[in-house]
Amino acid sequence: MAVLVGKKAPEFQAPAVVNGGEIVENFSLKQYEGKKYVVFFFYPADFTFVCPTEIVAMQDKMEEFEKRNVAVVGASTDQEFSHWKWLQTEKKDGGIKGVKFPLVADSSMTIAKNYDVLAGDFEYDENGKAVFKGVPQAYRGLFLIDKEGIVRHQVVNDMPLGRSVDEVLRMVDALQFFEENGEVCPANWHKGQEALKPTQESIAEYLGKN
């Protein structure tokens, strides 16, 4: 798996559904550079089981993301029309109606491939024909991208394993605290807790207290 931390987030232009129902043709993360942090996450497929729990959980915390100047963007290998239909479907019927953040349609699977979260790839058979091996869906990859477009945190879960939105917010807090104060965040750090100056003396003092 590619480690993208410290590197420029792969760029793309793709269809997306925004504001819960508007289809746009050339959505890009470039629009956020210099303005917002981005939480860009992949999920396997629309109209499945774990995926709506994550997406709705993200929407439920949208006020917290907005307080932190973070744009949340989801993506799967479904087409934009599938996203649109899912967004119009009531939650009691397995839908995600009420979700407002963008859902990108990566039907070509190139975005998932460039972020190295695609659960398969094309291979050539004995006749030289391209055949997809694996599952044409994305693993549960999540990337925290700073305002300069650099990936600062990434995590990838297998498809059955849902992610923690609170942990995503914790990582946003840690990154922003470091940027603002120059202090580093120890294990299990949460906003409002003591951090560390990057010196041996500071670390020794912290460990002595804990």
Automatic annotation (TrEMBL):
It comes from the Bacteria. The keyword Ribonucleoprotein does not apply. SUPFAM superfamilies: Thioredoxin-like. Residues 3-177 form the Thioredoxin domain. One of its GO terms (biological process) is response to oxidative stress. The active site is at C51 (cysteine sulfenic acid (-soh) intermediate). GO terms for cellular component: cytosol. InterPro entries: AhpC/TSA, Peroxiredoxin, Peroxiredoxin_AhpC-typ, Peroxiredoxin_C, Thioredoxin-like_sf, Thioredoxin_domain. Keywords: Cytoplasm, Disulfide bond, Oxidoreductase, Peroxidase, Redox-active center. It is found in: Cytoplasm. Pfam families: 1-cysPrx_C (PF10417), AhpC-TSA (PF00578). GO terms for molecular function: thioredoxin peroxidase activity. PANTHER family: THIOREDOXIN PEROXIDASE, THIOREDOXIN-DEPENDENT PEROXIDE REDUCTASE, MITOCHONDRIAL. Belongs to the peroxiredoxin family. AhpC/Prx1 subfamily. Thiol-specific peroxidase that catalyzes the reduction of hydrogen peroxide and organic hydroperoxides to water and alcohols, respectively. Plays a role in cell protection against oxidative stress by detoxifying peroxides. This is Thioredoxin peroxidase. The lineage of its organism: Bacteria, Pseudomonadati, Bacteroidota, Bacteroidia, Marinilabiliales.
